[in-house]
Amino acid sequence: MNPAILALPFLLPLTPAQAPSQSPLSGLALRSIGPTLTTGRIADVAIDPTNRSIWYVAAASGGLWKTENRGLTFTPIFDTYGSYSLGCVAIDPKNPSTIWLGTGENASQRSVGFGDGVYKSTDAGKTWQRVGLEKSEHIGKILIDPRKPDTVYVAAQGPLWAPGGDRGLYKTTDGGKTWSAILTVSENTGISDIVFDPKKPDRIYASAYQRRRHTGVLIGGGPEGMIYRSDNGGKSWKKLDKGLPTVDKGRIALAVSPQKSDVVYALVTAAGKEGGFFRSTNKGESWEKMGAFGPSDAQYYAELFPDPFTFDKVWAADTLFQLTTDGGKTFTGQRFNTHVDYHDIEFDPTDPKHLILGCDGGLYESYDGGATWRHFNNLPLSQFYRISVDNTSPFYFVYGGMQDNGTIGGPVRSLAPQGVRTSEWLTVGGGDGFQSRVDPTNPDIVYTSSQNGNFSRLDKKTGAVVGASPRLPLTERGRWNWDTPFIISPHNPSTLWMAGNRLFKSEDKGVTWKPLTGDITRNIDRNTLPVMGKVWDADAVNKHRSTTDFGVASSLEESPKVKGLVYVGTDEGLIQISEDDGKTWRKGENFPGVPAMATVSDICASQHAPDTVYASFHDFQHGDFKPYLLKSLDRGKTWTSIAGDLPGRDFVWTIAEDPQNPKLLFVGTEFGLYATFDGGAHWLPLKNGVPTIEVRDIAIQAKASDLVVGTFGRGAYILDDLSPLRTLATDGIPTAPTLLPSRPAALYPDLSYIRAAPGNVSFPNPWPTYFTYWLPTEVKGKLSVTVLDSKDNVVRELEAPTTPGLQRIGWDLRQPGANRFAPGRTLAPGTYTVQLIIDDKTVSTQKLEVVAGG
């Protein structure tokens, strides 16, 4: 451990609540590469009633976005706060500058994130204040009293993976300063939906939702599911169960007819076949089952939208938007020319044919009642589960599998001056995309995966796609993770490894497979596990619906130093280790400080030391959000924690070791990206350019020395040129202003004749080179970076930031120009001297190699 690191005030341990506002690495900015070829899941949309050009779009896992021009451009307005996962957004009807935001998606499926309460903005989203319910984790809905906008009701579904928390219906009458719990059911049951009587806002309908999810386990309802009504603003409540199913009930969606407020609709999920669409004509006093229609997956959909123009016309979110025009007797799936899996629809009170909808594929708009649609391809909301990189020259590609949007790949930069265009991205796989791998010797061979172990091999040259999954005997089902781990051997690109509840190996690129093991998991029957204090019968509501198999591999790694040294982690806390190519195995099941059934989220075998391996665990699906990060120096026989001062509410998804410097490690967590120079005692956030977001995967492109980051909700990011961080990890933190090394700068022509057509969204190219320097304290005078040629002539002087910490500026490899229409001359290849100058005094020097790109 370098004592110089600990001496710096920047590197004090992080508090459990949050990272420091100013990291010493804050000068290093990551750049977004999008993409927007496909976007991501939309949870809610709110439109300013006084200016219908202003929309607020809540992404399920990509933050809050605002447009003031009906979607021509969007701006993220919630990037620096405590949550990326959002459930609902509401606008004060009397003062549209006041916005209420419920964090934590109001769904309960596999890929859901969690929130940290309710936020409020009084300046149209410029700034936000958290106003309460920090432990709610999932907000179902927010209603604002149209008469008294300081009176607000919040339906809190409550924690998904644990009991307790802020769960139930809450009310504030002072704009969020104080809250009262006005409807509480139990520690396991929250309130999912609330609706006003449009003629009498003191009359409120609320639905109680009992549910719990754990690893591979779901119970989607229970005996506490119910509909309630209050006629006095929540002072007292009445159960409305006459005519409803008497069996256990799950999620219930509610709506009140805008035309006849005595008519109430309820989409009820229930055990067996008792659920369906119910209608009341007497304010819920009694219900009539109109039909058997129910959502295909209530935990994911189950929202109702009454049409503002036509009585008894109701829209129901589902895989297809379902529509009834007869009060629920019949429903028809609307086959819109959009992505499927719908979550929201917004109506224009001035135009019945103007619709806006949100789904798993993003945001859409129609002006002809749904006959044709416009897709907003300017929202970079890709939800990457996993990413990978190839060795394409001159610019490598990034590939990633996305939630419900397949697998795509695209270059990290372009010869076009405007950067990487959306049209340069390729769709290479379908379904829910997960792990993708590229043959390191042939970038045209791309392996992609979809859910439950379905793999394909694509030849980009020919376009041929062949299945590459193991074929099990008809008598053996096998168990597969939703995100099945799959790797290419670092020792032979024809050798593939894949793991479910067994480990498989192929030596011919997936044409044939050989099972190497029996069951490598604990092989626990998930139906024997207690949930909410008991073991549930087979007919429990939505039992294990849309839930991955339990007892499966969750991570897989072969040592790049030792052929046949294989590690397999499982979703119930095991790491299986083979040192002889899968012939024999050693089981690890007790890890210091780690809960026994925690999921092994990632395994990283060292590229430097054959006996060193890293493992990350998470246990959030049992309500534990702590980071668990371990290191072994003896091939997994013993382990020590390297979680250091990672925030206490920020569990770890992935870990990567730098291929050039073993002291430099990176982790992706539920809320960000971190680096360490000292083996994990201290972790520094890399936040510049990256919002609060779940970092699911990390890849390092060795040739380019780039860090590639895959996020679940904001696409992919690049940290260009890791050379400075490698130097700091080796030499420690300098005590004086120091210019750090840069990788060779490659010269490429700008193909100025290439343009991006309108709507072909592009993301800027990186600078051809970066100058990175360390400042132990703020510089009070003038600071510049000067470049000299071989004859010590000044070719460029660049003004530089004076803030302490690691700072970086980019340079276009040009001499000064007259203006942007007359840029300076491009440098010739060669060796240049770079100087860090403070008040005309050179304090540090480095060499820069400029080479011809190719």
Automatic annotation (TrEMBL):
Keyword presence, Signal: yes
InterPro entries: Sialidase_sf (IPR036278), Sortilin_N (IPR031778), WD40/YVTN_repeat-like_dom_sf (IPR015943), Xyloglucanase_GH74 (IPR052025)
Sortilin N-terminal domain residues: 118-245
Signal peptide coordinates: 1-19
Keyword Repeat (UniProt): yes
Keywords carried by this UniProt record: Repeat, Signal
Biological process according to GO: xyloglucan metabolic process
Superkingdom to which the source organism belongs: Bacteria
Name of the protein in its database record: Photosystem II stability/assembly factor-like uncharacterized protein
Organism: Armatimonas rosea
